[in-house]
Amino acid sequence: MEKQTDERTGSYARRRAHFALAFFALLAVGLFAWNPANLYLWIKALHIIAVISWMAGLFYMPRLFIYHTDAEPGSVQSETFKVMERRLLKIVMNPAMMLTWVFGLYLAWSVYGFQGAWLHAKIALVVLLTAVHLFFSRAVDAFARDENRRTARYWRFMNEAPTLLMILIVILVVVKPF
Known about the structure:
Blueprint: H1 7-34, H2 39-70, H3 76-110, H4 117-144, H5 152-158, H6 160-175
């Protein structure tokens, strides 16, 4: 019986993730080569897909931390959480964050010329979201070493940070209040 924590399963997941990244890269290169009249909409769609993937990881990771906090270090449950956290970070969150930044900066430059106070505020909030991502990444490393010093209550609180930032970013993008 194959377990999801087996190294073979992990290498399969990595191959699938690399395939997905290569597909996204080829799609982007193909779009620029084709240069359709609606290139902006294609890039915007890819940006939204990347943002949704990144946010899914940012919402899920602290939930894993909450449950991992209650697991006894070295237990089967703790080791399973370590695998889940590492794969979520490396296979979903990191690539999605990078693609979000690449497509987002392209849109900010090509469509708005980096002009607009709302855009500057949005980019600042995305920098904060990236800082949250990096904080979660360090926490994954701490959990992997069985060195988590935070409580489940703390992680419940941190679960709200990506949500608050996402709400503010969406309002800035849709409403463009200034």
